[in-house]
Amino acid sequence: MTAKVSQLNQAPAHNPPAAKKASRKFRWRDQYVAYFYLIPAALFFYTFLLFPLIQTINLSMWDWSGIQGAPATWVGLENYTSVLSDSNTIRALSHSMVFIFTFCIIPVILGITFAALFSRQKITGLIFFRTVVFIPQVIASVVIGVAWRWVYQDRGTLNVFLGFIGIPSERGWLGDFDWALIAVGIIGTWVMTGLCMVLFLSGVGRIDGDLYDAVKVDGGGAFREFFTVTLPGLRTELTVATTITIIAALRTFDLVFVTTKGGPGKQTIVPGTEIYRLGFRENEIGEAATMAVLLAVVVFALVRTVGWLLRDRDQVGS
Amino acid sequence: MNSTTESPVKVARSKKVMTPKEFVLKLFMYAFLSMAATVVLIPLVSLFSVSIQPPTSTSTSLSWPTDPAWGNYVEAWTKGDFPLPLLMINSLLVASVVVPVGVTVSVLAGYAFGTMKFPGDKVLFYLFMIGLVMPFEATIVPLYYQLRSMGLTNTLWGVILPEIGLFCAFGIFWMRQFFMASPPALVEAARIDGASSLRILTSVLLPTAWPPVLTLATLMFIWSWNEFLLSLVVLDRSTRTAPAGLGIFTGQWVSDIPVLSAAAIIVALPTVLLYIALNRKVISGVLQGAVKG
Question: What part of B 63-102 touches A (C-beta under 8 Å)?
Fold first, then answer.
């Protein structure tokens, strides 16, 4: 049974795309029966995701305290001008950019470098390494936050390690004005690097080995090999890894909430914590919704940009 | 995946020829892998070592105590400053509804998208896929007031129902992949025999669908268990799920570091154990789900 299923799973890869398209779908006698299968999922999805998303845009145009029965005043785009001119917003968004660096760019570079360097090597114990480096993906970020709080404390593992290599330090990293943001960002690197490594490793395994031989026959070196075979072959994985990690960087809330709560001062505030503060601590519902709209716009824009930058240009050897 | 990774190893071994360059490369590779694995494990092992320090200890570094205080786990479970068993039961209750209902609605919708052609199929599918990209944080404010007006705040339903809506986007995507890959001839034959679409789903396609369904159920369990923000804002003290309860507690002044660490480990245990048991399914689910998108 298992063998059969894995065959079924692989089936489309062997079919030419045209034949797949023609035979994949069936015309039911009554094509509208499909809608009945969609209704349950659509109900949940619309009620608890799509409708609130639309409501966010609506709420961002009102001044409302959120208190039951309290009147709401239509203010149009006023929330946008006040939120965009608030230094906290700029601060939160610029912190997000730092997080894009630590959650996305560093892990992607580490992952792709590893995959490229060792693309032709057979790894003994791959399953073990893969299992270990992937663990951060399944642990609740609250627990990750607690673990790292201890690492970063004045007498924590990091300072013990630094003392060991000859840089004695008594800094409490998460409470330090200059270091807190970087410290939280590095937790993101820790969470995401394993995912990127595993992703690129599985992608590089699917690249046709003959392509590497062809480069070698042509007299190409390691760099040619990387830019003409490895990188194009990993385009899908690169898009996926970048998209996933950028979304994670921008929407971070749990980690910051548990490690620093945005502090010290406002050194680690991010859009997620701002939405929480405005919406659930200061009862500025309109401004919280405005922040949420901004966050969603930035996420969609960046995801589209990544998709566009890494699109399949369909040119051989470019 | 297995066969491709294991068989070449045997080939390499049987040849037993390795140039110095290859040897250095291999050395580098294992050094890199070991370092990555060590860096991943250090914070977790530190957390564990802190959790068995004597109860009065304020040390937070990685050091093995001479006399491991396993009693911290008992204390975290029974007398901690927050009701851990209650929180764990709440989390379990949430997951025990989210997983079966989430999987079911995903299978039904994935079946429609994967095997049927109908007006608006593309538009509807892309609409669902918004759920994969959209940051959930962007909907939490109106969602809270909506749940309040529905009378669902401070009830587990206030977390269960949105989670199903949130996770079904991936579920639909995932199951559609599977149904698209099933051989059309199988379905065609059943149709000619006069089977209804529901019958084809339940007796022709679902019997072969259990591996992807199990993967989906595992992922949904992990996501549901780890969900934080929703539980934080929608639930109160007595209905909170484990991560939110722990998160609130760690925000306050921490009086007993070892016991808190023990509690954190207990909260992480269900998903980690599930992952260790089904790691190939979890990894391939995340990878395939991501790459095919």
Answer: none
